[in-house]
């Protein structure tokens, strides 16, 4: 089996695949409220093309896949894609990041297609605040989706919570308490400046202080949780779930990076916090052949920066916002 390490010694075996740039929410930190120009159907990768790319990825050393978006569950037949990916020898794990709205409808189908587990994004436990953050009234659907994920054993069910100063930082302990009662694995995430930089600066909270604050209030025991990322996990002594901290801005996120990203329009991205991307289409508009795809994986590995460029001089804005990359 191929193993690919970059020049910083990081083993790259994880591919995040964005299958759409469309979404049924408009989270403030991810997507503009209006004027979003979606890619047309012909501009995004077909499921068959995704499979060809993943085959080349397997030759390169990819063993784990995450399906993301936009919102992956708005793309028709996503459970079929999961089934197709599961047929590929060499793929050890397939997971999904979703806002959860459509999970009541799809969780059973996804389980049947052998999806291993889901991450669900939820930034507040208050319905009105949810409407403010996401600009849509879908809180109850997300809660039903979370219950459904547990019922279907899409375990461990992780909850992604982006912390925002003055918006949801008063709910930190409510999320911690949620892990006492339910087997949810809440991961607090630092706000990344991909869209509106000013808003990101104003809302950003370093998780170092949040972790200290939670520890001051009670005991946190370090634990290991199945996952692909750079989160550190803890649990309350009587907690059914866990609490994780993802610190792209304040901490050692980049040194543990193990991934490449595939955008819905067929670009391979070596790093989330960089405009670098490699086209997987040839000039004639056809997807590259197997050899060409594998070369682009190798090129992405060679170009992968040691760390993100969120605060690099001259990098005031990025070409893509988060919904066009997949998180
Ligand atoms: N729609 C799906 C969802 O929301 O889970 C998948 C795509 S979304 C882009 C993937 C993850 O990126 C979500 O957990 C979301 O909270 C996170 N995200 C989006 N914008 C972010 C930002 N500016 N900083 C930190 N995380 C962000
Ligand atoms: Fe949509 Fe996910 Fe972005 Fe929210 S975070 S707007 S749910 S893609």
Question: Care to describe what's here?
Answer:
The longest helix is centred in the N-terminal third of the chain and has 14 residues, at about 45-60. The chain has a single domain (about 15-325), classed as Alpha-Beta Barrel (TIM Barrel). It contains nine helices and twelve strands. Helix 1 (about 45-60) packs across helix 9 (about 290-305) and helix 3 runs parallel beside helix 5 (about 140-150). With about 325 residues, it is α/β, with parallel strands linked by helices. It binds S-adenosylmethionine (SAM) and iron/sulfur cluster.
Number of domains: 1
| Total number of strands | 12
Strand % is 15-25%
Terminal Cα span: 28 Å
Bound molecules: S-adenosylmethionine, iron/sulfur cluster
**CATH H-level name... which superfamily?**
Aldolase class I
Q: What is the 3D form? A: globular
Q: Main sheet?
A: 12 strands, mixed
Range of helix content:
25-40%
Radius of gyration: 19 Å
- SSE pattern, N- to C-terminal: EHEHEHEHHEHEHHEEEEEEH
Instruction: Return the CATH architecture.
Output: Alpha-Beta Barrel
């Amino acid at each position: 089996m191929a193993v690919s390490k970059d020049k910083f010694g990081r083993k790259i075996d994880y591919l995040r695949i964005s299958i759409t740039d469309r979404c049924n929410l408009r989270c403030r930190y991810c997507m503009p409220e209006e004027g979003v120009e979606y890619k047309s159907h012909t501009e995004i990768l077909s499921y068959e093309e995704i499979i060809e790319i993943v085959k080349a990825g397997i030759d390169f050393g990819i063993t784990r896949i995450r399906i993301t978006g936009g919102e992956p569950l708005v793309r028709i037949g996503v459970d079929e894609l999961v089934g197709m990916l599961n047929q590929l020898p060499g793929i050890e794990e397939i997971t999904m990041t979703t806002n959860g709205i459509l999970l009541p409808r799809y969780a059973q189908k996804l389980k049947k297609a052998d999806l291993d587990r889901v991450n669900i994004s939820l930034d507040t436990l208050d319905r009105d605040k949810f409407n403010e953050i996401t600009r849509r009234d879908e809180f109850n659907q997300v809660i039903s989706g979370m219950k459904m994920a547990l019922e279907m054993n899409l375990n461990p069910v992780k909850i992604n919570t982006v912390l925002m100063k003055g918006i949801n930082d008063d709910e930190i302990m409510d999320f911690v308490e949620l892990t006492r009662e339910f087997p949810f694995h809440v991961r607090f995430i630092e706000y990344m400046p991909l869209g509106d930089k000013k808003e990101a600066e104003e809302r950003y909270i370093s998780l170092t202080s949040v972790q200290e604050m939670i520890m001051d209030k009670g005991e946190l025991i370090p634990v290991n949780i199945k996952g692909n990322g750079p989160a550190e996990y803890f649990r309350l002594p009587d907690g059914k779930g866990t609490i994780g901290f993802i610190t792209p801005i304040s901490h050692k996120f980049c040194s543990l990076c193990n991934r490449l990203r595939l955008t819905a329009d067929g670009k391979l991205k070596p790093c989330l916090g960089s405009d670098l991307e490699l086209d997987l289409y040839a000039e004639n508009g056809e997807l590259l052949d197997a050899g060409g795809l594998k070369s682009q994986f190798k090129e992405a590995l060679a170009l992968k920066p040691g760390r993100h460029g969120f605060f690099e001089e001259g990098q005031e804005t990025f070409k893509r916002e988060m919904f066009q990359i997949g998180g």
